[in-house]
Automatic annotation (TrEMBL):
This is Short-chain dehydrogenase/reductase SDR. Gene3D superfamilies: NAD(P)-binding Rossmann-like Domain. Coiled coil: none annotated. Belongs to the short-chain dehydrogenases/reductases (SDR) family. It comes from Candidatus Rickettsiella viridis.
Amino acid sequence: MHNSNTDSKVVLITGAGKRVGATIARHCHRQGMRVAIHYRRSATEAEALAQELNQQQHDTAITLQAELQNTAAYPDLVKKVIEQWGKLDVLINNASSFYPTLFGEITEKSWDDLLGSNLKAPLFLSQAALPHLKKQKGCIINLVDIQAQRPLRKYPVYCVAKAGLVMLTKCLAKELGPSVRVNGVAPGIALWPDDETEFNPTLREKIVGRTALKRAGTPDDIADAVTFLIQHANYITGQIIAIDGGLSLDY
């Protein structure tokens, strides 16, 4: 059962129209939180998700469109959440670009895009949300990647961006304590990219075979860790939790 409006947490999730972000939104909602679903291009999916959640409980979901490459849009993004519900308890930096960048052919455009979505946006959005998070003694959760610590062939720029996000998570935890907790979750395989060319079935099977639990993770596995960090981790900050079925043990 949802809590009354005054004590249910308000969560802003970037890139929450589909895939892992949408699953995180559903899990948070199921635990009585109100969710602001940010999207860039997935308007149809985001609207459908908000409608689904609002049908379960009135006024518990909104959608917000913003281009995260444009940092000037951040204050407005936060303001809309505050206008709707009067507070912000949790920021989940989930939006992310992911694609190969072959060394020797890396363009400044792909550098700006990958560093922008995976590192710059979490920093500046956290900064925009900070006064409200402080007021609530809230928390920030960054979606990292186990490849932040271990290079993935053909993805140097993405790995560098996620490695930066790991350090940003730790820096912010130090800067923002005691009022705001900051943690990261690092998925291994939670959802394969839509593009099958890089991760073909044979390669997928091989990667799954290297996990200790012998299965791919699911978006639910990630979302469970996120809601744990929000609800049950009052003394945890500055940590990166690997949700990888033990894949990183094999490196």
